Task: inverse folding
């Protein structure tokens, strides 16, 4: 019993150290954080110019605009999730670690979410006001992003693991990840649209919770398996 507890404590300490390392590297290269946020802002700013600056039109399209921008921003940042570890050799150390690989990759995905999805979630209410989203939809928008962006990181990390040894594998990563993103996009935008119209939106939110819990349980195992396969 003590051995299991000690192993759990050591695994938790290893995960915290990995998160601290990834966050330190991200802040040393601020472009990793700023680029997705700048892309998110650019997408939300260009849509009104390309469609129409009409308030009623933008208020209807705002949930889709913001969620598509967030989806593309997260996807853009996924290519470097394991590539930098592959380049400096730390990926091999992760694979040879005595700690469960699924736990370690979950820590890396959490670090990625903190520097991408969480920052986008904080920005989203400001963009919602800019796009004239009704006030009733702003809280549901932030909540769907808070639940949905971790799913984007978890699902995208599977594709990032499969393409880690492929040079310029961004297109393949996109093709692998987008089908997994579509259900999240549908239910998230559906929740915000329903809330903005004064309709019940709890059902959409529950589906996002299901996606998140399923991703937390299954995605780390799939990511670990993919990394082991491509490393052989």
Result:
């Amino acid at each position: 019993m003590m051995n299991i507890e000690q192993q759990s404590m050591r695994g938790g300490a290893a995960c915290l150290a990995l998160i601290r390392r990834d966050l330190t590297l991200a802040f040393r290269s601020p472009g990793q954080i700023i680029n997705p946020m700048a892309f998110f802002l650019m997408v939300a700013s260009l849509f009104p110019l390309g469609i129409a600056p009409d308030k009623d039109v933008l208020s209807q399209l705002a949930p889709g605009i913001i969620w598509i921008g967030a989806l593309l921003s997260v996807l853009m940042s996924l290519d470097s999730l394991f590539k930098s570890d592959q380049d400096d050799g730390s990926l091999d150390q992760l694979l040879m670690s005595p700690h469960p690989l699924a736990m370690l990759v979950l820590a890396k995905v959490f670090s990625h979410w903190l520097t991408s999805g969480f920052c986008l979630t904080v920005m989203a209410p400001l963009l919602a006001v800019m796009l004239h989203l009704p006030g009733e939809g702003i809280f549901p928008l932030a909540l769907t992003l808070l639940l949905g962006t971790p799913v984007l990181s978890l699902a995208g990390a599977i594709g990032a693991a499969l393409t880690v040894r492929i040079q310029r594998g961004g297109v393949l990563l996109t093709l692998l990840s987008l089908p997994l993103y579509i259900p999240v996009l549908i239910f998230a935008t559906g929740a915000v649209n329903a809330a903005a119209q004064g309709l019940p939106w709890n059902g959409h939110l529950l589906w996002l919770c299901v996606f998140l819990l399923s991703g937390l349980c299954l995605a780390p195992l799939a990511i670990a398996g993919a990394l082991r396969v491509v490393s052989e």
Q: What stands out?
A: The longest helix spans residues 202-231. The mean pLDDT is 87. Residues 101 and 176 are 22 Å apart (CA to CA).
